[in-house]
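Marked as duplicate of an earlier ticket. Keeping the data here for the record.
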Amino acid sequence: MAKRTKAELSEKSLLRPFTIVAQDPSVRLSKKPLFTQVMVPAETLAPGPWGYRLQVIDYDSSTQTLYKAWADTAPDEGCFEDPFADSAAKDPESLLQDPKFHQCNAYAISMRILARFEQALGRRVSWQFKTHQLKIAPHAFAEANAYYSRRDECLLFGYFPGKHGPVFSCLSHDVVAHETTHALVDGLRQRFLDPSSPDQAAFHEGFCDVVSLLSVFALRDVVDAALRLTGRSNLTTKLRRKLVNGRVLTAEAMRESILLSLAEQMGQEMSLVRGRPLRASARLSPGTQYLTQAEFQLPHRRGEIFVAAMMQAFLAVVEERIRGLSAESFDDTDTSRPIWLDRTRVLEEAAKAADHLLTIAIRALDYTMPVHLTFADYLSAMLTADREVVGDDGLYGYRPKLLASFQSYGINPASDDDESGVWLSASKLEGQSKFKKLRYGGIHFRSLQTDVDEVFRFLWENRVPLELTDEVYTRVLSVRPCVRLSPDGFFLQETVAEYVQIIDLTPPDLHRVKIRVPKAISRSMRIRLTGGGTLIFDEYGKLKFHVHNHVLHARKQAERIDFLWNNGWFRDGRSMTTVDFSGLHRQRILDSPRFSEEAWQ
């Protein structure tokens, strides 16, 4: 890597480079591991690395070993060099065994995912605990597992013996990105870990897989590797590095090549931790029957449907973008004739598609209700969130492709406002004759952007038009002002506030409000019902959207109670605890044949 001048480094002082493993150590080109360079928010790090949001503490609980921490050598002026660029080029195998590289690899990937969330949401994202820094343990234990622990405020990565030496889960981009996303989603929606519907249990896993996959496909080096691994071109090596046949870049062809070529390269050993969700989702063909099948009631299997729908939409968008690179028609009858495209442009289009879909996926979290999420809810949230920032979706049609892909897997939008599937806006609600006007008198706009008590006053004043039940416990969870940047350079200012409603009722009480429960549940059992909503205010303090689940919704609460009862809740005094990711990930491993082609995790 060529040395840069101090002036050049100063111009990029807002970011700093780190070399990371691009996908997984087992993904190799010319028998060499694939590395790439990423840019993360710049900061002068304490030994660890230890920054303002992440702290790497490299303690191995299995051997009671505290590894020596990597120390930052960057000068105080902020002139940052990549500490591992030379080693990756000269001695990549030794670098893969260096604990200090393990520490920085986990830090850089986690920091990149955090920065990506904050860029999409237009604000800082807090963790779901009191401290500001999420801890990372790259060699936490000698076990084929990795998970996020809210209690420990930590991401814990295991290691285990493999066929050719130790296998470190902290070197897998998918694993690190997946666990970081768990922590971020928990910070944004803490009650997504509560026992609820099969969709909500599956969403955490499926969404984290989607973020890890799209974030890695936003790296040009990874897409380039996938194209080179397909081996379909008869060009010389020199031309193959410059050109690619557009004929093999249809959505169906890329499902086998770009997705499955990397999945084939990922080692069997890492499947003990991840189970190759990329391969499993790529092979799940569209079908509307999955959601009702027994095997897809398990969270990790159901999450596969969500991942498949997102990746199918991704490939459809990539195909659309690639078609625009050539003046020739891809639809002529002579499909044997190649259409050569510039390889660099193809990589750029694929990376742009992944990056934009990643933005849509992350931003949609702000448009979801805080409790009892379904895939249908999230689909409407994605369509609404993107429409608010990108009004004209005509060029590549991200939203129609997302809608069509999810519907091909039996997932229809929760909103039936119109064919677009977006949430019904507050202005349209107010236009309905039966809807009472929202009251803003006495509400202070500036306080509404930051103060939970001001938002609660808005809820109380408008409990009738917002269809809130006032005889339950109600609490505003958070108020988050946001500034979104649209593709045309304009800023969209919004305030996102979440509230929750809670009530404990016995079965006789539930029957009185027309919520049925299984007959076997004791009449004295107290069952907790939760509901809640998300309020989206515009830059003038007017309500744009109210996305909510009613705490006494008869059908939805009955379905939730049935699901939980059938899965062992409310029995023998079992308490309603949050999801344990350690156990969930371990169960995903145990439920999958260890070396099966269809392994999930």
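See parent ticket for discussion. Residues 26 and 266 are 5 Å apart (CA to CA).
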